[in-house]
Amino acid sequence: MSKVFLISDVHVNYAANWKWLSEISGHENDILLVAGDVSHDISELARCLQMLVAKFKHVFYTPGNHDVWVMDDDKQDSISKMEHVLKICEHAGVKTRPEFLENIWIVPLFSWYDSTFAISEPLTKNDIEELKGWSDLHFCKWPKGFKPRDMYERNEDFIQSFDLMDASPIISFSHMLPRRDLLPPRAELEHKFLAHVVGSTLLESQIKRLGSTVHGFGHSHVNKDVVIDGVRYVQNAMGYPKERERYSYTPRLKQIWPLEEGE
Ligand SMILES: [Fe+2]
Ligand SMILES: [Fe+2]
C-alpha cells in the first residue's frame, strides 16, 4: 500500500528549497500531495512538478496564490495563468482532480481567501495601511467580476457528482486554510490583517460535505497537525529559508496516510 505524503509552499525560487527537493529519494511507491505555492515562475513550476513526478508513484497538486501571480505578462490574468498551470500539470502527469487510488480518495480542492474568518476582526486603519503591501494585491490580476466564491464553485462539480458515500477515507487538500482557528489569535499575529487573507469558511463547509478524514493545507507557513470536529488538519509547509532559520526547523515530507505510530 502506498504512503501519502504532504508538502506545501516549496517556493522553489529559493535555491535551498530547490536543492532539498531535488535530493528527495526512495519514494517510488508513494503518493505526494503538493498543496500550492510552488513558484510564480511558470517554467520553474513546470520543472519542479516534472522532477517530482519522476520521484513518486503519483503526484497531486492544487494551485497556491504565488502560482497565479502575473508579474510580466499584461495579456494574462490570474485565472488564465491558473488554467495554464493546470494544463502543464496534465502534460506532466500531475493530478489536479479527485481520484480513487488504492482504496482512498485523494481530493485536491481549489481555494481562495475572503473575509469570512474575520467577521469579528474588522480591519483597522493601520491594518488597511499595512495590507497595501500584501503582494497578491499587486501580482494577482483578476478578471472583471471575479469573486473568491468562484474558486469554490470549481469544486462543486466533483463534490456533487462523485459518490463518496462508501469511500473512506477521504484525504482532501487545499492551499488556503479552512478554519480561522488554524491561525493564531489576532493578539499573537505579527500582521493583524492576516485572517482576511488566508482562507474561507466556504472551504470548511466543502470539507465537511466531503467527509474528509484528513485535510492538508498550506499558505500560512505555520505547521500544524490537529484534530478538530473529527477531521485531522495538517500543514507541512517548507516555507522560506529565512523562516526555517528563524523558527529552527528543517524541511521534511510529512506522512499523512496511513497514520504513523502515535499520530
Ligand atoms: Fe507560501
Ligand atoms: Fe500562499
Description:
The strands form two sheets. Strands 4-5-6-7-9-8 form a six-stranded mixed beta sheet, with no helix packed on it. Strands 3-2-1-10 form a four-stranded mixed beta sheet, covered by helices on one side. The protein is 30% helix and 16% strand. The mean pLDDT is 94. The longest helix is centred in the first third of the chain and has 15 residues, at 78-92. Helix 2 packs parallel to helix 3 and helix 6 (148-161) runs parallel beside helix 7 (201-210). The two termini are 18 Å apart. It is an alpha/beta fold and 263 residues long. The protein is globular and about 55 Å long. It has a single domain (4-257), classed as Metallo-dependent phosphatases (Purple Acid Phosphatase, chain A, domain 2, 4-Layer Sandwich). Strand 6 (170-173), helix 7 (201-210) and strand 7 (214-217) form a beta-alpha-beta unit. The chain is built from eight helices and ten strands. Bound molecules: fe (ii) ion (2 copies). One fe (ii) ion (FE2) binds next to loops.
Summarize the structure.
This protein is an alpha/beta fold and about 260 residues long. The protein is built from eight helices and ten strands. One fe (ii) ion binds next to loops.
